User: Fold this.
Amino acid sequence: MRKAGFRFKDTITGRTRRGFGFLIFVLMMVAAPAWGIRAAPAEPDPGGSRAGRRDLPRVDKIRVADLKEILRKDSGKVILVNAWATWCKPCQDEIPGILRLRKAFRGKPFRLILLSADDADDLNKKVRPMLKKFKVDFQSYLMNDKSDQAFISGMSSEWNGALPTSFLYDRTGKLKATLVGERNYRQFEDEVTKLLEN
Amino acid sequence: MKQLMACALLFSTLAVAHDMKSLKVGESVPPFALKNYDGKELSLPKVLKENKLTVLMFISTECPVSNGYNERMEQLYATYSKKGVAVIGINANKAEDVKAIAEHAKKHGFEFPILKDERNKVADQYGAQVTPETYVLNPTGKLVYHGRIDDSRNPAKVQSHDLADALDKLLAGKEVTVTEAKAFGCTIKRIVTD
Assistant:
């Protein structure tokens, strides 16, 4: 036998229940700050949104064969390819000096290519925001071959994958130096000047 | 000013000249004796004689890649020391002193020895460039594997356990198929002496 008394189910329709539920949700959202309930602060991720990504420097994923093709097409210039990563502190220390080279050799047959060794997953989250921090306003690349080893061996047999490493190509497109480890502006300037004079 | 320029030029030349060739698989490695962070000296010829294989790992206390392998390195030691493999760390970074190495080893529970390569003499002889970078030696002191521990800094993304595969094959008396494997890491910060 059915018990007598107030039964919520019996008194309101499904539509009313949904409206009531929505009202409770709104009230909870309004009241949440007063109860000290807050959403976890979002991690700054300038590359997270499409709009945010538009403001970031362009970085294309590249295979070593395609990079070699770029170098071949650009022969006639001295090219410095700097391999770096967002997790590599010495890389970050030398980047301002490397960027200074672009200004110092403006008008000369010189090209700088920044080549990130970060995971492809970190392209928008870390790589492009860091390049923006360094005010990089030209296209860069991220190594994305079938394996890290393929890229390392493809760049130079003398390279074991240590970062930072810079590769200097002369105006005929020949690799003239594999500079393993951090260098300063003067060291890069000397090397580039020597190759431009040859 | 001219002197300053000359110094900069000289340093540049040295720095470029300092880029050295790495030992090749099949070559005999140079012997050395270095001190562990607890002060005890360890001689490579003695270690080679007493073990089926010897793993030398150039590591760092500060490099994020080397530190990403801390647990994996300790695991390697735990697994292979029982099988007659000597696992030895070497720290050749100029800014990382014995005290820092000892604190780092304690913090991460390293049970394997970590030798301080003062003035990066051994790193120069071996042509080690990066941390982590490993060398596997047979009892006669020949290099039988050189390179990375595995193929990813992120343990969840590892697909190729190159060092462990090489050790397993060598211990089983089989031929190692991959004798050299490279991966990205931090440069060994050296003192330039030549």
Observations:
- The beta strands of chain B are 33-36, 41-43, 53-58, 85-91, 114-116, 130-131, 133-137, 143-147, 180-181, 185-187.
